[in-house]
């Protein structure tokens, strides 16, 4: 995560594990659920997980961290973090959490109950690479996610003045906003970085409003010599569509591109 060449934190560092293909859909909002209240969101629950691997059917979540954040006040309202007991942790070299430590006696059940109370008071769950974190909820010890998700990696378009890549890591964001980086790959630490970034965002309301716009998966219409345009715009080659530069965009974002795009049909083959 401290390597600036990484794009999305835990998923990028767990290179020895296979990542499941991202499902294809024509048009989607940042979440399948509706906001908890009408009007713009005022409270976000920033969430991060540490896991024993990438496969939610086989692996387990062994740490949960969360921070309840007030948008209008730019303040942290509450936070929590707890380890969850696991038998083995093949990803210990990455998250540095020994399985035997996760099994030490501590009130993790109370921690999860507090998390559910925090979630009930939030408008959105926020994660950096939410597609990864959301898959663990409703499995094992973690409760079901009862709020819609917002992804700071895929949904938020960070200001150009920050000189960030189209898909920055959490560490990239922290450094761009002048936040000291002291640790990586513990759940609460990554939540704290995002909370600090939000505190420094003068235009946070606008960023979130744009992030909540409906999106569809599109394919870039670029030649081989123009492929850098798609890459610089955050399109990914062969992911999730074979032989194409693809990304999910809103209609507004499509109009701002320097090249044409076409919508991707759900029947097109996904990369393996």
Tell me about this structure.
This protein is α+β, with helices and mostly antiparallel strands. It has helices at residues 10-13, 92-95, 99-102, 108-120, 130-133, 170-176, 187-199, 204-211, 227-232, 251-255; strands spanning 27-28, 43-51, 61-70, 75-83, 124-127, 149-151, 215-221, 236-237, 245-249, 260-263. The chain folds into two domains: 10-24 and 31-211, Nucleotidyltransferase, domain 5 (2-Layer Sandwich); 215-263, no CATH class. Strands 1, 7, 8, 9 and 10 form a five-stranded antiparallel sheet that branches. A five-stranded mixed sheet has the order 4-3-2-5-6, with helices on both faces. Helix 6 packs parallel to helix 7 (187-199). The longest helix has 13 residues, at 108-120. The model is unreliable at 1-27 and 31-36 (pLDDT under 50).
Give the topology.
Layout: H1 10-13, E1 27-28, E2 43-51, E3 61-70, E4 75-83, H2 92-95, H3 99-102, H4 108-120, E5 124-127, H5 130-133, E6 149-151, H6 170-176, H7 187-199, H8 204-211, E7 215-221, H9 227-232, E8 236-237, E9 245-249, H10 251-255, E10 260-263
Parallel strand pairs: 2-5, 5-6
Antiparallel strand pairs: 1-7, 2-3, 3-4, 7-9, 7-10, 8-9
Helix pairs in contact: 6-7
The fraction of residues in strands falls at 15-25%
Instruction: Tell me the domain tally.
Output: 2
Give the helix level as a range of percent.
25-40%
Count of beta strands: 10
The structure class reads alpha+beta
The tally of helices reads 10
Describe the sheet with the most strands.
Answer: 5 strands, antiparallel
**Which fold does the CATH topology of the largest domain refer to?**
Nucleotidyltransferase, domain 5
CATH architecture of the largest domain: 2-Layer Sandwich
**Corresponding CATH superfamily of the largest domain:** Ribonuclease H-like superfamily/Ribonuclease H
Classified by CATH, the class of the largest domain is Alpha Beta
The end-to-end span amounts to: 25 Å
What is the averaged pLDDT score?
87
Radius of gyration: 18 Å
Low-confidence stretches: 1-27, 31-36
């Amino acid at each position: 995560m401290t390597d600036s060449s990484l794009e999305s934190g835990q998923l990028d560092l767990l290179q020895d594990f296979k990542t499941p293909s991202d499902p294809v859909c024509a048009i989607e909002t940042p979440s399948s659920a509706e906001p908890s209240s009408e009007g713009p969101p005022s409270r976000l629950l920033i969430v991060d997980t540490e896991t024993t691997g990438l496969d939610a059917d086989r692996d387990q979540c062994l740490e949960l961290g969360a921070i309840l954040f007030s948008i209008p006040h730019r303040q942290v309202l509450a936070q929590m973090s707890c380890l969850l007991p696991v038998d083995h942790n093949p990803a210990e070299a990455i998250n540095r959490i020994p399985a035997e430590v996760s099994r030490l006696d501590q009130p993790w059940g109370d921690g999860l109950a507090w998390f559910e109370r925090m979630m009930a008071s939030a408008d959105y769950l926020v994660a950096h690479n939410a597609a990864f974190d959301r898959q663990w909820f409703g499995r094992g010890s973690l409760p079901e996610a009862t709020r819609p998700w917002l992804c700071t990696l895929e949904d938020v378009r960070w200001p150009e003045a920050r000189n960030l890549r189209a898909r920055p890591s959490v560490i990239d964001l922290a450094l761009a906003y002048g936040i000291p980086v002291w640790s990586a790959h513990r759940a609460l630490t990554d939540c704290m970085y995002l909370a600090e970034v939000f505190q420094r965002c003068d235009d946070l309301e606008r960023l979130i409003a744009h992030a909540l716009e409906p999106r569809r998966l599109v394919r870039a219409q670029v030649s081989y010599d123009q492929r850098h345009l798609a890459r610089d715009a955050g399109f990914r080659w062969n992911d999730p569509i074979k032989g194409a530069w693809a990304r999910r965009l809103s209609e507004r974002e499509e109009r701002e591109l320097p090249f044409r795009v076409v919508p991707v049909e759900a029947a097109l083959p996904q990369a393996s």
